[in-house]
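Hey team,

Filing this mostly as a record. A colleague (T.K.) asked me to run one chain through the structure pipeline before their review meeting, and I want the input and output archived in the tracker in case anyone asks later how it was produced. No errors, nothing strange. Just documentation.

Input sequence:
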Amino acid sequence: MREAQQVTSIATLFPVRVITAAGVTLLLARGFYLPASFLIAVLLILITCRLWADHGLRGLYADREAHRLRLFPGDEAILSVHIRNGKRLPVSLELFQSFPEGLDEITPVREGRFPGSPRRVLLGRFGEALSTFHVRGLSRGCYDIPQGKVVSKDPLGLFSRDKPFGGPQEVLVYPALLDLEDQDFAQRHLMGNMRSNRPFMPDLTRVSSLRDYTPDTPARRIHWKASARHGKLLAKVLEHSADLRLCIALDGDSFQLPGPSMEKALSLAASLAVWADEKKVPFGLVSNLSRHGRPGPVSLPVGSGPSQPSLALEALARAELPTALSFSVLLSVESRLLPWGTTIIVIRCDGSDDSLIAGGLVTEVFGTYEVSRL
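Output structure:
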């Protein structure tokens, strides 16, 4: 991108230099050599400073790199700016980098400057410099870091040129995690590793005991080795097993405006996702809230794996009002795509107090509802 010229004083204006040159000509024509010499010196200084500033950004390269772009509230990220002077002319630079609200720039006391103030860099010929910015995530959200600006000045500070650097970059701050106790959700998936009291679909791989064979028992349940050892037919007694699969649904229609209740609900959804991942429970996430920088509502299929929690946390970090569509429409569409036996947890605001956590947890399982509160 082309550098822009800044007006720092009246001496930087082009008409001033034209008037000075005209004055020199007029004084020489009338024989006033001493005043003319003074104006010539002033004119040479102005021209030299302007040429210095014009060439200050030529051959200058600035690269920006961010480290750790995914944060929890209170975590820190580092933004590094590498500047290289590819010419023989020394340059005096000022480095500007602003951050959006929600990201707090951390300035060490030893630097003796305020957050947001420019950083001064002096580069000799073919010199290089590395400047780092430390920022802390204050609140949940998706933040776009604006372009930085490098400003070149002449030694007297009369003229300056600036140009931007750095491409689009975003920092995600995840919702704060809550301390959740172990939740006892009912297992709805028919097959799994957990014992269930349901009297149907026994697990053929889990034998709890033996009993005498009766004619109404299927022949495939006869334990032939035990029957041969005891001299009578014995049948297997099978356990009923089940497994847990969760779908976390966030009702965006219950939030009129962004506020503490919405942030608490997002934190609760994030905490449930992290809890499910730690317990090796497959989970998904749906919400009719919009996503910053992404089209459509939040929709993460039920699954497991190392990327599942990070995808859920990223979707919650991008969640924002207004809603993309009605929550009832979204849930009716998403419920058809869920694996059979998935437990749906709906998180919504009860509207009683904006300072409290979203109302309750409503678990929808094929038309039956179970209400519980954390």
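Quick notes for T.K.: Confidence is low (pLDDT under 50) at residues 1-5, 186-201, 352-374. The CA atoms of residues 326 and 343 lie 21 Å apart.
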